[in-house]
Amino acid sequence: MQVKKYSGELVEFDVNRLKGSLSKSGASSDVVDEVWDAMRPMVYDGISTRDLYRLAFHLLKREADSFAARYSLKRALKDLGPAGYFFEQWVAKLFGHVHYQTLTGQLLTGNSVTHEVDVVAQKDDELLLVECKFRNTEEAKITVTTPMYFLSRVNDFQGRKFSFFGKPMEFTAGWLVTNAYMTTDSIHFAQYYGLNLLSWDYPTDSSIKRRVDNAGLYPITCLTTVTKNEKDTLLKQGCILVKDIIDDESQLDTLHCAPRKRRRILQEAIELVNHQKP
Fold first, then answer.
1. Which superkingdom (predicted)?
2. Which stretches of the chain are DSSP H helices?
3. Would you say residue 50 lies in a domain?
């Protein structure tokens, strides 16, 4: 049996891969088997990956909102668009979680031209130049031209000091961060020239997916108990992470939702963030 990817390409269906993605939602092996048993009669030759996702999402949500929320992480990152501004805010939160001070949307003068820098991050003797590449399609890939372009920006800042947090420093490293995938050429180029890459699945042991699951840094767009308009409202008021509403429940005041729904949102948030991986 084959499935159709977003690109239209047909590939062999791998039930073990599907079960693996289901288990990463936090569901037990018994729940994963139950979900697959319910999906099986509805899976047909040529089914799209989008329809497979919808089936799995719906069935996981019947088990627990937080399972569906965790399963939807990749799509939730895409929902930080369409322009990517909120993705930059979220990336700043990723670095902030590991004790960097961060700034976003900085206009900085290089040796030859002025650059708009997505994120600046500083900790101890490190000053990072962070470029965010947001993509709003499921299977988008960052080709080698992007790290090539980014390297030219890194080089244009060489020898220049900036005082963002009261300590004049030169940039010590460049980071290219994306919610998409990296091509092999992109990875090889970055490795050769000393650029740091962070994507959905790279590096394998510290990818975006791994970092989010390990630290509970889920974007607010993961929540399944909140509508799209409500998510937009939360994002616009600076509520970027699910953790933000756990730390400050008053973030939900602007939604004017009924007490029962409010309790359900908070329950999903807590279960999502506090889930302990086996």
1. Bacteria
2. 15-23, 29-39, 49-63, 65-71, 73-78, 85-97, 145-156, 184-193, 208-215, 228-236, 242-247, 259-274
3. yes
Q: Report whether 45 contacts 2 (CB < 8 A).
A: yes
At 153-196, the pLDDT tens digits run 999 999 999 999 988 999 999 999 999 999 999 999 999 999 99
What is the spatial distance between Cα 34 and Cα 252, in angstroms, rounded to a whole number?
Answer: 34
Q: Using alpha carbons, select from 117, 3, 97, 100 the residue that is nearest to residue 50.
A: 3
- 71 touches 25 (CB < 8 A): yes
How many Å separate Cα 39 from the centre of its chain? 27
Which tens digits make up the pLDDT trace of 197-231? 999 999 999 999 999 999 999 999 999 999 999 99
In a domain, 69, yes or no: no
140/228 Cα distance (integer angstroms): 23
What range defines the domain where residue 107 resides?
85-213
Specify the number of domains making up the chain. Answer: 2
Q: Does residue 253 belong to any structural domain of this protein?
A: no
Same domain for 208 and 168, yes or no, is yes
pTM confidence score? 0.90
Q: Is the dihedral of CA 112, 114, 117, 120 positive or negative?
A: positive
Q: Yes or no: say if 71 and 21 are a contact pair by the CB < 8 Å rule.
A: yes
What number of other Cβ atoms are within 10 A of residue 8's Cβ? Answer: 7
Output the furthest CA–CA distance in the chain (Å, rounded): 63
- Same domain flag for 115 and 202: yes
Strand 196-198 to strand 173-178: parallel, antiparallel, or no bridges (unpaired)?
parallel
In a domain, 136, yes or no: yes
